[in-house]
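Researcher: Next sequence.
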Amino acid sequence: MKSKPLSYLPNSLRMALLIALLVGLLIAALAWIQVEQERSADLEEMDRRAYVIAHQMVYSIRTALQLPDKEAAVALGSALEGYRRLVGLAVYRPDGRLIAAGKGVSDFTDTVQKIATQALESSKDLVEIQQVADAHIHVLASLIRSPQGQTEGVLVVVHDLLQLDERATSRLYQISFWLGLIVLLLLILVVAGAWAFYDRPLNRLAEWMQQVRTGDIAAAPPTELSITRLANESDRLATSLRTARLAQQTQARAVMHATNAWTRDRLRAHVVDCLRGGQLLVVSNREPYMHELRDGKPHLITPAGGLVTALDPVLQACGGVWVAHGSGEADRRMVDAKGRLAVPPDDPTYTLRRVWLSREEEQGYYYGFANEGLWPLCHLAHERPTFRAGDWEHYVRANRRFAEAALEEAGSGPAVVLVQDYQMALVPRFLKEVRPDLAVGIFWHIPWPNPEAFRICPWGPDLLRGMLGADLIGFHLQQHCNNFLDTVDRMIEARLDWDHFAAELQGHASRVRPFPISVESWDERHALTGDALLQHIADLRERYELEDARIAVGVDRIDYTKGLAERFRAVARFFERCPQYRERFTFVQLGAPSRTHIPRYRNYINELEALADEINWRFQTERWKPIHFLIGHHEGATVHAFLSMAEIGIVSSLHDGMNLVAKEFVAAKPNLEGILILSEFAGAARELSDALIINPYDTEQFAEAIRRALEMAPEERRERMRRMLRQIEENNIYRWAANFLADLTAAPIPAAPTQETV
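Model: Next structure:
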């Protein structure tokens, strides 16, 4: 008679077998640990006993070693015998010559000689466990030293471990017997219990569900279970309900799509509901609009970077105050007495409040701790973080300064504060200490590393406590949320709620959520369109002699995390593999200088310029060069024109929280003519899976992606771009802001303080 497969066994028996197996493995593991612990204790006792014997014999051996070899052997003859449970003893001169040995040592002469020589060469005592033929021995080589510390010889003490091995084996057999007995009894109990409380009631529940499905009137549902029959009846019941559920989902989807497009107007109405009469404040180091002196006059600049790209449209849509670092004399000239400026300059919709720092404070807080410490720590991109106590002190003071400015702008009324990025980690706590009624959220725009990496920061616990002052902590990816909570768990005393992804510190709960950030469309930025855009593209092609070339473009701050050197090398490798594209294809890199006060960044710019020059020297002709490296702060119109003209957008970050350039390139392609090459280490790769995903460290793969992009069929290009464009249109910056604010303001906010708080 054939045995039935495991799946046909009664549920009670399967459960019993599983539990018995798990318990048996657990007990076996505990038994093994117990036996090993006992054996370790026995070996420690063996070590101690060997040292005691060696200590007892030091004087007699030192005395004997003063004699010639034969007389020394005679003097030691009786001293080397008489110890119980001992294989034997042996004495050697400093040159390794054997002077005397007990009878039992003769079976292990080579092993003992070797260990004695090793002890003499290393000038320290050695303890070894050796297997020699059928014997298992414990060997101590103890140096004999003169009162002046000179080595006069070595004593080798050899014990037999047979008794220890036999005792361990016997103990293991005993535990195994009791283990088997316990597992057998457990199996019987589980089978009986499962049948009485599981299998039999389950069958009755399945019968009742059958009656319900067929329309029969059932008395009362039995509280019983049966996996097999319940599964079958549940499937039939689900089938009967599926039509109604699908109809409901279809209707819900239709409603969602009817209002799926998030616009400035829709966000503005949404924010009014979220704020409930309060105002919106953004706190960041980077300002959305800055000024620099040109010919003695302030000139407006829109800084590069994802933070400004993401949040400026939100403030333009909703109004409020943006608190940021004022960076120079030109910035000072443009503000009022309280550091305020209405922006955007052409159509003001919100207020920019500039905070002033001394040169020393800026150097320590921003260039020091934030960008020589936290930035490389979080990006894991081959740059050693640097932490200095002075930089940390400036970081604390600067964060307090920004918090004080935000509190001043908030006044005494309700407000929602969005703290931005790694430069402001302490601001949430400083805000809550004074105004616990504020709704405070912090969004971390860069990756969060694993706990083992983050713990090297000397002030990591203080940073975590600062961030946990926020009601909501946002990251780009769920992985970064996981890493953050793991870090909190490892480094500070906080209660974690993994079911709701929250951490509670000193009675205050902080929720941790992923919010993949995005961009607005170029049309909403009032970018050039139509003939004006075409003319700007034509002008750029003429200026840089690009009239006949197919274009790939990169737009980045010049930072070692962006993979620019890897990008240049991939372009060079592409021309080596595909020389037919010389004079037909050009790569343009727009590079915005950043953090040039830090030597590593200055050196990196020089390295990139040298690399671009070397590649151009290898491949260029009289009328063409393969790489145009355009260093400077480029206006939005210029960035848009290059993204629009390029067939290929390249984002090769070595480690990036999101990288909005990838989304900006897609947004610049409403005609669907283009393809994106995207690093797998950028957060955007999670959403833009129709890009050509590459490992930027793999030069061959990178070069092949360029070739594939140039030779891809137009139909495939358009289909890939269509799906990516739909993704960023449906999940734009307004939806990101709406989700973050909705989640932040959904939590109950405590009442305003009634007394002065320090």
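Model: The longest helix spans residues 11-64. Confidence is low (pLDDT under 50) at residues 1-8, 213-220, 238-258, 747-758.
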